Histidine--tRNA ligase
Amino acid sequence: MAKKKSAKLKARLPRGFVDRGPAELQAMEQMLSIIKQTYELYGFEPVETPMFEYTDALGKFLPDQDRPNAGVFSLQDDDEQWMSLRYDLTAPLARHVAENFESLPKPYRSYRAGYVFRNEKPGPGRFRQFMQFDADTIGAPSVSADAEICMMASDTMERLGIARGDYVIRVNNRKVLDGVMEVIGLSGDEHADTRLTVLRAVDKLDRLGVEGVKLLLGEGRKDASGDFTKGAGLGDAEAEKVLAFVEAGSETTDQTIENLRGLIADSKTGAEGVEELATMGKLFDAAGYTDGRVLIDPSVVRGLEYYTGPVYEAELTFEVKDEKGRPVRFGSVGGGGRYDGLVSRFMSQPVPSTGFSVGVSRLMAALTTLGKLGQEEIAGPVVVCVMDKDIDSLAHYQAMVQELRTAGIRAEMYQGNPKQFGKQLQYADRRNSPCAIIQGSQEREEGEIQIKDLIEGKRLSAEIEDNKTWRESRPAQFAVKRDDLVAEVKKLLSAQEEDRKNQSEN
């Protein structure tokens, strides 16, 4: 009886996850380096927390079932405690600060970059693993800490190459939002669901406009497909007050603040939020950021169950065209706010906190579209070809590789099957190598090597059409003394770099 042939394992990427190649990783590293430099300029220092935390420490997704995996990826440890992959970088920071509270300087200023995980349905541009880059100040009760982070967010955008006028840092305050809810009679736990519906309607202003928000504040709205979204059920008078609040933003900070004062003067909480915005506005003005970079905007709604004071959002305002020529805006690429209650969950004392998070993938896409990132080809290593396989020859090739590496030049000896020389050059070409080093037995006897300029070779190959001319020209290949290997390769790499600069300028 013939043996049953076992099926080969199918290679497949899990849904909601993505592989990343060298070009994307290099672009990401370049962007993260600029953000890191900006954060450090403001006095923030790095800290790293693990990807796993005990599930009950995460705060947002507390276990309410036998398996607490709603929104997060969880597993049970051998001591029967549930652990989950972090869904953001803030909850782990809160745990870290609480656990090390006595030894940390206060205020504690830190930044972190890392992948976070969401156990949610994936979709176009929506992944289960993505990177965030956060900066937080813990232990600073004044809104001057919030204002500083907003200014840092602005500086970050500009240092990344986003021109002034192509972005805005929009600022609001949850206390102002809560004040509006008080004014229209929606304070108290019994109105929690209605408040949430109202604030979600306000958050859709950019997409639906004033009329669309007005419908959602009332009975509801039917979209173009015919689907109906139930509204908050507010009366006309209450809805008008909410809309007046949403439209209270003005060209100047002072006028916006006056508009808000008039709208929520009857709410102590709301008035407190307005004064905090006024303080931040004065700081923005003193530092020169009220020139369109930072804007007080009452329509900003973030973290409805998370933030307790100022909230802010970094928004890209420029338009690009999609594949069908339609205008598209990237919108928000980062945001944050004050979350005074998060660290306090672990403590017997209040711990005021504020922070900002950059959405790395969305910001990368925007920078790539602007031509600020990922435009340069990744140069591969110099490839030392293997012409002879005997041990003495291999030792010579290895010595050449080591000389290049010692001089700080990326280099490798070809490790594949050396029988076909053409395959080695094909390999070097696919690696985008700047040049290949060739030395057969004859060159070794003469104390020479051949250097093949692969960049120039590509250019010439596009111009030479017949094999005879190609063979006669031996494009971009020249002999040098073996002892001059490093000097000649450096000279070639320098010339290639100069050519790239000239091409980019032209």
